[in-house]
Amino acid sequence: MDKDHGRFEIRRYYQSTELAWFADQAKWEGLQSVGLVESVRTVAGKTTVERRYYLSSLPLGVATFARAVRGRHWGVENKLHWVMEVCFREDQSRARTGYAAENLATLRRLALNMLKREKTKKRGIRGKQLNASWDHPYLLRLLGI
After folding, report:
1. Which of 33, 73, 101, 145 is the most exposed, fewest CB within 10 Å of its CB?
2. Residue 142 to residue 127: CA distance in whole angstroms
3. pTM: predicted TM-score of the whole model, two decimal places
4. Which residues of 55-77 are buried (b: 16+ CB within 10 A; e: fewer)?
5. Rounded CA separation 142/132 (Å)
6. Under 8 Å between Cβ of 62 and 15
C-alpha cells in the first residue's frame, strides 16, 4: 500500500510456475514463471484498476517477484525520467496538441541515445549537450555526419 500526493494505491502480486498453457514457452530461454501485478489506485475519489503481466526467469517466490518489479520500475524512473527532466527539461514542455508531445519525446530519447553512445568526451549528458552547442565538429560527430 502507498499513500502519496493525494493518491492511495494497493498493489497485489501474483506469481505462478504453471506454464503448460503457454504455447511459446520454448521461445523464452530461462522462463520459470509468470507474474501479475494488480494496482488499485484511488485519486480524488476515482478508483482505477490496472493489471500488468510479466514473463520471468525468477523461480516461485512472490516477495522476490514484487521486489524485482518495483526495482525495475524505480530503475527506469531514476535512470531515464530523471535524466529527461534534468537534462532535457521534459516536464517544462507545453506541447499538448496532436502528436507534438509524442514526437518531441521521441526526439529527446533519440538525442539521449546519441549522447550516451558518444564516448570521446568524458562528460555527463548535460556536459555533452553543452559541448554540442559550442563545438560544431563535435555536434556533427554526434549526428554521425
Report:
1. 145
2. 13
3. 0.51
4. ebebeeeeeebbebbeeeeeeee
5. 8
6. yes
